[in-house]
Amino acid sequence: MMELTELRAKRDRLLPVRADTPMAPAPLVPAIPGLGKPDIPSNQAGYDPEIPKKPPMGEVGAPGTEVHIVGGNLVVTEQDYNPEMRGKAFFEQIDRMRLSDPQVKATMSILKLPIQAADWKMEPASDASTDRAIADWIGDRLFNKMSRTWNFTLRHGLLSLDFGSMPMETVWDIADDPIENRPMYYLKKLGPRFPKTVLYWVVDDVGELQKIVRCGPTSDVHS
Predict the structure, then answer these.
(1) Which of 112, 88, 67 is nearest to 215 (CA)?
(2) Which of 11, 110, 122, 184 could form an S-S bond across to 177 if both were Cys, CB 3.0 to 4.6 Å?
(3) Is residue 155 part of a domain?
(4) Domain count for the chain
(5) pTM above 0.70, yes or no
(6) Do residues 40 and 124 both lie within one domain?
(7) Which tens digits make up the pLDDT trace of 34-60?
(8) Could you tell me the sign of the dihedral formed by the alpha carbons of 33, 39, 41, 44, in that order?
């Protein structure tokens, strides 16, 4: 069995040492059970193994989603290998499957019905009376006071299982609140925006979704 001193020596040899930059922060080196913490090299002055090194900020890479430029925007490129499953043809095929195929309909029901039948409520952040009052107010507005019922909102949101996505627009309004005795902003509805109306999914330079561009009776843009 390898001696304890040999284990310590082997471990210390594996530690990165930057002799060219004496004050450069060294990576956090955890203690190894049975071996303790390693000796701190003299050229790493100021290094404290108890203080974690701050992580780098920002994003360097990107997911690699294929994009092209439309009107100065980065737009996601359709990549389905089957040309019959692109654009409008994709949604027509999905509609045929989900509306006429009994196995597909049964599978979707198994996935959706438990969610729709669940007892939805707003949980307070704590047992404090203020948090309970906030949860009650938001829950009442969300489940009882929106212009579309909660079941309607759930049914349309769950269409993301059918189509792969289902954009919902947050529509806000302001009204006098009888509980707070003052005007309050509230969520009027989550408006369904069917994915077959989406012309472009616009992303930024690291692939994060920025907005969608839709066609319809009136073309619109949603961020």
Answers:
(1) 88
(2) 184
(3) yes
(4) 2
(5) no
(6) no
(7) 555 555 554 555 666 667 777 888 777
(8) positive
